[in-house]
């Protein structure tokens, strides 16, 4: 698995970069690749979007420095911003249709494994995609596929300022909250530590590469 760490970058630039890598992966010009990035403040609406889940007009959000994009991933509405680790797996599915659900479950499993490294017991929800700690979402997942190559991916709240979620109904779920590693543990975690555990967990979950300590 290749890993490309982009540091902090604007959403549109990375969205474009993903699409270029998808084309290369379809043609087998590159191996499976995980992009890691922190975005500037942005709200994205997926294919299942409901505009009523955007609680402020786009003009007001722009004044607050928050961009808004409609994108082709699954899911409804989410927020990305500094202190949040966003991962975009550009992976080729081996099993086509049967593989989509398994792919999403693998991503959930990888994030649960990574969180365990911080002593956090997270879990899946049978009815809702994502990773949860009690009844709060710590990681959102929304993917798209082109010719069975994945793009878009996950957003893991690390040191995220959760007040930005007040501008939306996250994932359209009015009765569920959001949380972060910082909120759960009570202190900030270095993003580099989180990246290391996430990379290891993806290698273990998707490619059966054992952890090395």
| Average pLDDT | 92
Shape: globular
**How many strands, what sense, and barrel or not for the largest sheet?**
7 strands, mixed
Low-confidence stretches: none
Query: How many strands in all?
Result: 10
% residues in beta strands? 25-35%
Quick one: CATH class?
A: Alpha Beta
**What would the CATH topology be?**
BirA Bifunctional Protein, domain 2
Structural class, from helix and strand content?
alpha/beta
The CATH homologous superfamily corresponds to Bira Bifunctional Protein, Domain 2
Quote the distance from N terminus to C terminus: 19 Å
Given the structure, what is the number of helices?
5
Rg measurement, Å: 16 Å
- Number of domain modules: 1
Helical residue percent band: 25-40%
Please trace the helix and strand order, writing H or E for each element: EHEEHEEEHEEEEHH
What this model shows, in words?
With 213 residues, this protein is an alpha/beta fold. The chain has one domain (2-207): Bira Bifunctional Protein, Domain 2 (BirA Bifunctional Protein, domain 2), CATH 3.30.930.10. 30% of the residues lie in helices and 28% in strands. It has 5 helices and 10 strands, in the order E-H-E-E-H-E-E-E-H-E-E-E-E-H-H. The strands form 2 sheets. Strands 1, 2, 6, 7, 8, 9 and 10 form a 7-stranded mixed β-sheet that branches. It has a 3-stranded mixed β-sheet with strand order 4-3-5. A hairpin with a 2-residue loop joins strand 7 (131-133) and strand 8. The protein is globular and about 45 Å long. The record marks 137 as: Lowers pKa of active site Cys. Residues 28-210 form the BPL/LPL catalytic domain.
